[in-house]
């Protein structure tokens, strides 16, 4: 079940082959949904679900898909899964789905999905593809959570909507940083994480 | 002097690798070059020599900033005593109040900025660069006087790290560091950067001054008043008395410390132009672009955009336009370098500054954003000018041959 290769498929994307930090994919949505932790975690779970199951489905179909229309087939599969996720969210998590607005729908165009389908699911059997999908989704989610943690803490003084910066600080002149809520600071935060990550992984550093 | 030299020689070994204080090597180098002219000369190749090194360039800009700085201090005191209804106070008291109000900001700006530069130089084993000399004095001049010191410190740290050190330090930055400081404050703490409470200091400065403001007090800058006015724009001073272009020209208006007096800024501009530090092409074309755009919007006045009713000259005297044109746009590192490029760069800064100021009701002042925008485009402008030049010459050579 978890041979060495499968373990790599599951755990490499968490750090060494992280889709956001190393492949620089999915940046757009990681800027858009990370203003606070709650939408970030919902977005992360949605991406894990869509990525894992589309990987499995494409992996099953991989021998029957004609090469020249494979992108369309992949898109149809992903789109169907995204619509299911979107409907579930609207039914059970209405407020969060409002906050995420178009970005759940835009999972279809998330480069991580197309990248994994093309690079992994088209050449591997369903079980490793499933693990690869979960691993990459987790790698993406971890980055979303780290970015959202700093943005929500410094930008609103809250975590998961609960006030964590005490009133005492505000009474003594502390103020929330409005720039953290805006997209530019999300990009800079992602940049800082990549900086830190490369500094701790010598083999990733370019010359 | 001799004793100092001997002392420096004596303590030198402990700062070199292996010494006790090797971690402070860059500090030692910085102090040594600050105190003594280094006697090392280059040994290979030919070099064009000019006595005008980075240190002297920076000091000249600081000197050019002094008129604006001194007047800014006086104006802080003037606005303060006007606001608390003691406008018969002597000018020296006003100046002293302003000095005490600005001193902490200057200290914070230099301490944070130079601190980061020292640490960064030590990490990279480089010499400390003088780049922060000018930035450190620009920041207090363009940040509203009521900004809390910790905000200035955070913004300065952000700007020095993310706008400068990341790009490789002095001379490598894409954006003007002082303007990034201001932009960071502007977007992070918008309530501190505009409105009634940002620009006129009413409480005491290091124990001096302070009092209750008069009833008619309004602390908004003229541009801020214009942006929110209905009908014909009326500008008033802090007591509600109407003011005109000449108040703005001399600088007796609320605003960031350095930006109010156009005359003081023009003295600085003269120093920069005579010494040849700043590019007259950029400076002039910013004013021309601004004047042209201001004339255009004045020709098409609209009640929706009250700032379009200001006449062009007043438009240029208000807000940070003159200060930005003289000290920010001409930054040789972030501006365009080709001659034609400098004209284009300057003109567009002027045009965009007025465009943002008049037609974007969210931002009563547009100079900061205009310069930062054109900073981003300066390399592209230069690239286009250079490649156009290459093509033109190639074509000329082809027709002759």
Rg over CA atoms of chain A = 18 Å
Query: Percent of residues of chain B in beta strands?
Result: under 5%
Question: Number of helix segments of chain A?
Answer: 10
What does the overall shape of chain B look like?
Answer: globular
Overall number of strands of chain A: 2
Assembly category: heterodimer
Q: Mean pLDDT of chain B, as a whole number?
A: 86
Class by alpha and beta content of chain A? mainly alpha
| Largest sheet properties of chain B | none
How big is the Rg of chain B? 23 Å
Account of the 3D structure:
The complex is a heterodimer of chains A (207) and B (401). By secondary structure, chain A is mainly α. Chain A has one domain (4-196). Chain A has ten helices and two strands; from the N terminus they run H-H-H-H-H-H-H-H-E-E-H-H. Chain A has helices at 4-11, 27-32, 37-61, 70-92, 94-100, 102-105, 111-121, 126-156, 167-171, 183-200; strands at residues 158-159, 162-163. A two-stranded antiparallel ribbon of chain A has the order 1-2. Chain A is globular, with a radius of gyration of 18 Å. The radius of gyration of chain B is 23 Å and the shape is globular. In chain B, 61% of the residues lie in helices and 0% in strands. The N and C termini of chain B lie far apart (65 Å). Chain B folds into two domains: 11-33 and 53-239 and 246-277, no CATH class; 278-388, no CATH class. Chain B is mainly α and 401 residues long. At the A-B interface, loops of A face helix 6 and helix 7 of B.
Search tags:
heterodimer, A: 207 residues, 2 strands, B: 401 residues, mainly alpha, 16 helices
């Amino acid at each position: 079940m978890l041979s060495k290769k499968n373990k790599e498929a599951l755990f490499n994307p968490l750090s060494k082959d992280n889709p956001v930090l190393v492949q620089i994919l999915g940046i757009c949505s990681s800027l858009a949904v990370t203003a606070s932790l709650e939408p970030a975690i919902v977005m992360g779970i949605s991406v894990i679900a869509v990525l894992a199951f589309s990987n499995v489905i494409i992996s099953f179909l991989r021998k029957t898909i004609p090469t020249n229309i494979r992108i369309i087939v992949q898109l149809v599969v992903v789109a169907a899964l995204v619509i299911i996720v979107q409907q579930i969210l609207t039914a059970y998590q209405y407020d969060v789905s409002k906050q995420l607005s178009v970005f759940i729908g835009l999972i279809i165009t998330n480069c991580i999905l197309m990248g994994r389908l093309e690079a992994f699911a088209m050449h591997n059997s369903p079980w490793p593809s499933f693990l690869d999908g979960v691993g990459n989704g987790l790698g993406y989610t971890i980055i979303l959570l780290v970015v959202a943690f700093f943005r929500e803490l410094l930008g609103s003084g809250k975590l998961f909507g609960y006030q964590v910066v005490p009133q005492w600080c505000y009474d003594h002149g502390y103020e929330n940083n409005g720039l953290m809520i805006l997209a530019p600071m999300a990009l800079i935060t992602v940049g800082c994480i990549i900086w830190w990550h490369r500094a701790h992984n010598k083999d990733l550093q370019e010359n | 002097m001799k004793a100092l030299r001997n002392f420096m020689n004596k303590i030198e070994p402990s700062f070199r690798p292996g010494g006790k204080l090797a971690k402070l090597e860059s500090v030692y180098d910085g102090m040594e070059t600050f105190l003594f002219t280094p006697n090392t000369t280059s040994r290979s190749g030919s070099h064009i020599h000019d006595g005008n090194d980075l240190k002297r360039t920076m000091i000249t800009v600081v000197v050019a900033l002094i008129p604006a700085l001194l007047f800014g201090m006086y104006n802080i005191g003037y606005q303060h005593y006007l606001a608390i209804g003691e406008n018969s106070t002597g000018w020296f008291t006003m100046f002293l109040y302003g000095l005490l109000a600005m001193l902490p900001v200057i200290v914070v700006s230099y301490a944070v900025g130079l601190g980061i530069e020292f640490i960064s130089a030590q990490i990279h084993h480089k010499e400390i660069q003088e780049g922060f000399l000018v930035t450190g004095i620009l920041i207090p001049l363009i940040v509203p006087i009521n900004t809390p010191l910790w905000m200035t410190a955070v913004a300065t740290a952000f700007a020095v790290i993310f706008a400068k050190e990341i790009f490789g330090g002095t001379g490598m930055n894409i954006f003007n560091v002082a303007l990034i400081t201001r932009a960071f404050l502007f977007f992070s703490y918008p309530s501190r950067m505009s409105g009634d409470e940002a620009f006129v200091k009413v409480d005491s400065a290091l124990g001096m001054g302070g009092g209750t403001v008069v009833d008619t007090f309004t602390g908004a800058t003229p541009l801020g008043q214009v942006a929110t006015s209905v009908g014909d724009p009326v500008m008033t001073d802090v007591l509600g008395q109407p003011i005109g272009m000449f108040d703005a020209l001399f600088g007796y208006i609320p605003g960031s410390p350095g930006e109010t007096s156009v005359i003081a800024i023009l003295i600085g501009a003269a120093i920069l132009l005579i010494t040849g530090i700043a590019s007259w092409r950029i400076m002039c074309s910013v004013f021309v672009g601004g004047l042209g755009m201001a004339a255009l919007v004045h020709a098409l006045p609209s009640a929706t955009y009250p700032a379009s009713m200001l006449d062009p000259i007043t438009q240029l005297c208000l807000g940070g336009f003159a200060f930005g044109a003289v000290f920010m746009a001409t930054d040789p590192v972030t501006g365009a370098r080709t001659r034609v490029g400098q004209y284009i760069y300057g003109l567009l800064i002027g045009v965009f500054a007025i465009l943002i100021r008049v037609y974007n009701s969210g931002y009563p002042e547009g100079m900061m954003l205009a310069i930062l925008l054109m900073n981003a485009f300066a390399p592209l402008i230069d690239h286009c000018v250079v490649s156009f030049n290459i093509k033109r010459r190639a074509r000329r050579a082809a027709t002759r041959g």
